[in-house]
Structure formats: structure tokens, C-alpha cells
Amino acid sequence: MEATARPVFCTIVPPHVLDRLARSEDPALAGSARRTLEADAAQRTHRRLTTVLGAPPVQPDPAAARGRALRTVFDAGNRRELPGRVVRREGDPPHQDATVNRAYNGLGATFDLLLRAFGRDSVDGNGLPLNATVHFDRDYGNAFWDGEQMVFGDGDGEIFLDFTLPVDVIGHELAHGLTQYTANFTYFGQPGALNESVSDVIGSLVKQYVNDQTAGEADWLIGAGLLAERVTGVALRSMKAPGTAYDDDVLGKDPQPATMDDYVTTGRDNGGVHINSGIPNHAFYLLATALGGKAWERAGQIWYDTLTAGTLTVTPTFADFARATAAAARGRFGEGEELESLLKAWERVGVPAH
Questions:
Q1: C-alpha angle 77/80/85, rounded to 5°?
Q2: Among 135, 172, 176, 274, which one carries the catalytic annotation?
Q3: Full-prediction pTM beyond 0.70?
Q4: What is the pLDDT of residues 1-20, one digit of tens each?
Q5: 95 has catalytic annotation
Q6: Could you confirm whether 173 is annotated as catalytic?
Q7: DSSP conformation letters of 251-282
Q8: Does the N-terminal peptide bond of residue 83 adopt cis geometry, omega within 30 degrees of 0?
Q9: Residue pLDDT, tens place only, 193-241
Q10: Could you tell me where the beta strands, DSSP code E, fall in the chain?
Q11: Of these residues, 173, 176, 196, 338, which one is catalytic?
């Protein structure tokens, strides 16, 4: 039985990155970052209020065929009011705005991966309509899932480009909805880091699915193509080598650890949810590349089975999750290569899975 959904506000760019930008000596960079932080704070407050008061449930269109995406893209017109003006519905021809089309296609790619790889009808398993708003606010340097829909900023053009450019960012944010409707991990500490990690895993799988890549061919970067030319870095995060995605005078150095030896204890970023997610991210990378082939077929299936098994509480530690993945691997594949590779992957990142 899946957990009762508890919507949370989840962004792709960590607060610690925006905090650093907000202290930049360059007024243009600092101004955009502060504006983004203000918008994020307002959305978090809105999310808490709707969680307490109760948001109206989003119902599938009864006329829509099961197993078929139902997408709507809105344009916020560089304002903060959501969802904005409808600019493309399911089945409409491509829009003249490339950002609209990228959002539409990314929603579709994520829907297709969930359906074809895992037999899941949308993020809730029951045909939930997929809504996205583009052109949110002015120079907004983030993208987020607010518990009901996805929202994308245009970036400031100096540090961040358009947030619809990397398809894995779209997959990442939509995957927060998948977690919300399945394991529903609390967004703090290790459960929050697992929430973020699951989104990175699904985001990476969406990109690999779109590009028809094997685990060995994939770059395992999250947000490649998002950073502007002036930034010394390749992405927001690296699942292959956590801590190496960027090392920039303005952004600072990627703080993600790859193993428990470097686990970061902090009260910021909801207890380091965007930082320590590097550890389960790396475990998934190690498993997927050890197994080879298409990563969603075995490694991804184990993670999906773990999310949907109903055996975890909403506050699992990394070790709890690792043991649950071992049970999922054993349940689907037996005592073979999949289980052996999984146990080795968790061992290498310092998380007990027995």
C-alpha cells in the first residue's frame, strides 16, 4: 500500500548555491539570486498553507484514455502567479516558443519512461494530468515541483540558462511527484536526501531513455547544459563522481560527498538534502554500470520496486533504504548478479545493506 501523499516544495538548485550567489559582489548576479530566494520562500509558504488547509485534488480527465499523457503547459509571463495562461494542451501542434515545446516534450518523455519501463500510468499511477508553467518570474534561477505542478524559470543568462534545456531537470522535478505518491519521504535529513536522490535517478533515466543510452554511455550528470558559459562547471551534480560537477569562483565547489566517510551534517538545506543525496546517487550509478545495458531495466526497476513496495516508513535512513533495495532485488531477480552488484554498490559508499 502506498503512502498518503504529503506535498512538499522541491527545487532543482540547492539553497546553498543561491545563498552564495546572493552574496556576490556582482550586483546583477546577487540581485537575481535574491529575487529567486524570495520567490522560493513565497512558494514554500504557499505550499505549507495549502498542505494545512488542503489543496483541491487534481482529477484525471474522465475522457482521457488510460495510459496516455494529459499535458498542459502554461506561461506565467515572467510573473509569479500560477499557473498562468494556457499555451499548449495535449495533442496541440508545436508552439512557436521553444521553451514551451521543451517542457511539453519533457513531460511526455517522463510519462513514457514511467509507463513503458515500470507500467505506471503517470506519477500517481492513475493518469494524473501533468501540468507545467514556464517563464516563471523574471530572471528566476530555479525549477520546482510544488506538490501539484512543475514550474520553470528562464535563468539569469549569467549563471543559469533556461531550466527546460536539460530534460533531466524536467524528469527530476516530475519525479518528486512520483515520490510524493509512493514512498512519500519526509523532506529533511536522510529521508529528504533520498527524496532528492530518487529525483536525480529518475531524471537521469529520463535523459538516458530519450537518448537511447546504456548505463555505460550515459554521462550521469544532472543539469548538464544549464550552466552559462562563464561558469566553471559541467552540471549541478554528478552521480558518477559526486563533488566534481562544478568548481567556480562565484558558485564555489560542488559539496556533494560520494561516500558516508564525507557525510555532511548541517542544518541548512533541510539538513543537506541536496548535498548528501550524492551518496545514494553514487550507489545507483555503481549498480547501474555494474549491471550494464539500459539502466531502467534492472537498476531502475529495483529502485521503483523499493518506492512502491510500501515497506518503508516516511523517514528512512540510508541504511533502511539500502536494505529495502536488497529486498526488492531479491524479490524480483533472486540471489543473482543484481543482488550481488547492489550489495557491493552500497558497500562502496559505506551504507550497510544487510
A1: 40
A2: 274
A3: yes
A4: 444 556 678 899 999 999 99
A5: no
A6: yes
A7: TEE----SSGGGPPP-SSHHHHTTTTTHHHHH
A8: yes
A9: 999 999 999 999 999 999 999 999 999 999 999 999 999 999 999 999 9
A10: 10-11, 71-75, 85-89, 130-134, 143-145, 150-152, 221-222, 237-238, 247-248, 252-253
A11: 173
